[in-house]
Each structure stands twice: as structure tokens, then as C-alpha cells.
Design a protein that fits this description.
Number of helices: 9
Strand order of the largest sheet: 6-5-4-3-2-1-14
Strand content: 15-25%
Oligomer: single chain
Structural class: alpha/beta
Order of helices and strands: EEEHEHHEHEEEEEHEHHHEHEE
């Protein structure tokens, strides 16, 4: 396993302390894929990158093939499923996603070969186990055939992935309030989008109730639902044309500070880059 990122006392944990390892490989419309591990069991969260890039990063991390236990797919857009089939076939792992997305994967023209044997349809709001991790999917509004977030619970704490959000629902806020570690969308800056070069129909799609959420909405949602058990937040799925990483971080951190929440003392705020793997985060609840 590669060296862990040092976040100081908050994240300096002993190897015997229950913890997750998390790394984003890519995040955004260019592709979405990350890895979450507890003990020797690793899950792949979405597969929107090339198989060669994925294998290169796995080699860097030092994860053995047999430690991958499953691929979780949020929805059927290309930037989330591009390498679903070759990853499942290479590592002989099941693909967990909703029945609707399973159906699209069976007949997706970008997927070669029959992957039916790898598909594991899951029911929304029903918990299933992968090793010591308990996984639950929940609905998230987006203009896909169906989009879900995932909450993953283990002795290390509660980890949630919530991305491609058109609007913030009560179920999303419930998931935030239950989480210790949160991956949350912060797609665009409102002014950059409105004054940018995108055509009007695309701007309407992005700002619609099944599009994406802005830095401002992300910041407000996090601040309104912050709780003392929330120790780590990583902003994800930033637009390459309508956002700037430093701006997304500042928008969220400034809003948290107005609520007297420190991104240095109360929680760690990070950002997942579009085309650059994140550090390897070691996360635990205490």
C-alpha cells in the first residue's frame, strides 16, 4: 500500500484503528472513479476512466487483484461507466447497480461482450453486505435513467458518495447527517456558468432540478447539515469550464466559517481534481 497522506492528529491513526482508505482517480465530466477500502476489502466507486489508467493507479496503490470485491455504479452516463465491463472482467468482480442501470449496461453499444454474469441488481434503500461493509443505495435526482448515492458503513464509520445532484432532497440531507466522511458535488460557479460560453439549453440543463448543483448550493447544504460527527468532506465533479478548484473550496470554507465551523479544527475539507488522482486519504471515526 502506498504511503498515507498526513493530515496531522485528526487523521494520524494507528494501523490497528478501524479506518478506510480512499482515493479518487478522476472526478468530473472527463470521468469518475474512486477506490474505497476497509481492511483488505476494496470497492470501486464508478468506472468512468480507461482500464489502462485504472490498472496503473491500482499498481501504484499496491492493491492485489483479489482484494477488489465489487464495483458500485451510481448511474449510466458514460463518465461513470466507461470501463465498467473491462474492470469487472479483469478483476472478476460483481457490478452492483439498480435494475434500470443493469438493463442499460447489458445493451450499451460501448460495452463489448455479454456482461450479464457480472451484474448484481440492487434495490434502493435495501442494505447488502460486502465483507464488513454494509452498503445502501438511495435516490439522487439527475437526468439519467436512474441515479443513486451510496452510503457505506463499517467499524471505521459512515462514508457517503453523493454526486450528479440536480436538487438537494430530504434524503440527501439525511445521508449527510448520518455521515462521517462525505464525497459531495460542487459542480459550477453560478456567475461563471451564466456568463460563460455554454448555449442556453445546456445552461438550463445544468441548473435544472435534474442537472447539477453549484458551489453556492453545495456550501449552503453542507453548512446547514453539518454535525460534529462529520470529519471529512471532499468536493467532487467540478466543471472544467464553469468552476475553479480554489473558488469551490473558498465558497464552501467561507460559508462554514460563517457558521463557526473550522476546516482546520472541526473537519478536513478537500477537493477531488478532474484529471489527477487524489492523495490516499486514511479516514476513521472517533
Amino acid at each position: 500500500m502506498a504511503n498515507d497522506t498526513d493530515f496531522g492528529p485528526l487523521f494520524a491513526v494507528d494501523d490497528d484503528t478501524p479506518h478506510y482508505h480512499f482515493r479518487s482517480l478522476t472526478s468530473g465530466s472527463c470521468g469518475n472513479c474512486s477506490i474505497l477500502g476497509y481492511k483488505d476489502d476494496y470497492l470501486i466507486l464508478d468506472a468512468g476512466l480507461g482500464i489502462r489508467l485504472f490498472q496503473r493507479e491500482v499498481k501504484r496503490l499496491g492493491i492485489q487483484d483479489q482484494h477488489f470485491k465489487g464495483l458500485l455504479i451510481t448511474h449510466n452516463h458514460a463518465d461513470h461507466i466507461r470501463a465498467a465491463a473491462p474492470i469487472a472482467q479483469k478483476y472478476c468482480i460483481p457490478i452492483y447497480t439498480t435494475p434500470e442501470v443493469c438493463q442499460t449496461l447489458r445493451y450499451n453499444r460501448r460495452i463489448s461482450g455479454d456482461i450479464t454474469a457480472y451484474l448484481r441488481p440492487i434495490e434502493v434503500e435495501m442494505t447488502f453486505n460486502i465483507g464488513e461493509m454494509r452498503v445502501k443505495a438511495f435516490d439522487v435526482p439527475h437526468d439519467a435513467i436512474r441515479n443513486v448515492g451510496f452510503t457505506i458503513t463499517s467499524p471505521a464509520g459512515v462514508f457517503s458518495l453523493i454526486t450528479d445532484i440536480g436538487s438537494v432532497t430530504s434524503r440527501i440531507t439525511e445521508a449527510i447527517r448520518d455521515s462521517n466522511f462525505l464525497i459531495f458535488e460542487s459542480n459550477y460557479d453560478e456567475q461563471m456558468l451564466q456568463t460563460g460560453a455554454y448555449p442556453l439549453h445546456l445552461k438550463k440543463r445544468i441548473t435544472g432540478e435534474k442537472g447539477h448543483i453549484s458551489n453556492q448550493v453545495s456550501a449552503e447544504t453542507i453548512a446547514e447539515n453539518y454535525h460534529s460527527g462529520l470529519k471529512f468532506i471532499a468536493l467532487c465533479h467540478l466543471s472544467g469550464e464553469n468552476n475553479i478548484p480554489a473558488l469551490a473550496l473558498k465558497t464552501v470554507s467561507d460559508r462554514l466559517l460563517r457558521s463557526e465551523i473550522s476546516c482546520y479544527e472541526d473537519l478536513k475539507l478537500a477537493l477531488l481534481k478532474r484529471r489527477e488522482p487524489s492523495p490516499l486519504f486514511k479516514l476513521r471515526n472517533f
